[in-house]
Amino acid sequence: MPYKILIAEDDADIVELLRLYLVSEGFEVISAANGDDALSLIEKEQPSLAILDIMMPKMNGYELTRAIRERGSLPVLILSAKSMDNDKILGLSLGADDYLTKPFNPLELVARVKSALRRAYELVPTAGSDSVCSVGEISIEKNNFTCIKDGVQIALTPMEFKILAQLMSAPGRIFTKVQLYEAINGDFFESDDNTMMVHISKLRDKIEDDPKKPRFIKTIRGLGYKI
Question: In whole angstroms, what is the distance from residue 167 CA to residue 68 CA?
């Protein structure tokens, strides 16, 4: 069964352009012209991933991202004319998995959709790898994608889980941003640099006692991150 992609965008030309490229890659596509209709479609159609425009009527993309996160872990890619770092940080902080600015290359968008789907649905432990990994009070179960700290389950997005799993796979090893992205996605785009920083920040908010003084995820200036 093909992955079902929801496009929430009020520009009909962009919707048809995306539909053309996504259908050619074997995806099923549904669309909505405003946030309210998009949320209804999500509940009714159970898409595999949502592509959201920011400037939509009735409910904008930020509000829709927040509503989606309140309901579950559906992968979200934000598509926006807003290119400032603060706009990207806001979208990712609300729970979006990726952020692409207009004008965009449709081939890059398709590549990002595929990467997001791999992160969300194709995270499989490699042959011979332990399904359970622990560092201090934190443990992860790769088979059911759960993270436990001090006996309490922590809700992580697919991207956050994969970052944590990669870091925990080799405690003490320094991973650059590029290495993390390539290990997780197999792809790295120039604009992903700040995106990784935001995901690390959100991950720290969830697993650290004091995110400003992290005990687990350490930043090694000029090099990358390690646990």
Answer: 27
Nearest CA among 224, 156, 155 for reference residue 196: 224
Q: What are the beta bridge partners of residue 139?
A: 134, 148
**Contact by Cβ (8 Å): 99, 92:** yes
> Which two three-digit tokens encode residue 159?
């991207």
Q: What is the tens place of the pLDDT at every residue in 87-101?
A: 778 888 888 888 898
Nearest Cα to Cα of residue 102 among 24, 3, 9: 9
The single-letter DSSP state of residue 226 is E
> What is the 8-class DSSP label of residue 60?
-
Structural domains in the chain, CATH included, are 4-121 (3.40.50.2300), 132-226 (1.10.10.10)
- Token pair 């005990």 in the structure block, residue: 215
Please say whether the dihedral angle defined by the alpha carbons of residues 28, 83, 70 and 67, taken in this order, is positive or negative.
negative
Q: Distance between the two ends of the chain, CA-based, in angstroms?
A: 38
Residues 132-164 have pLDDT tens digits of: 888 989 999 887 788 999 889 998 887 888 899
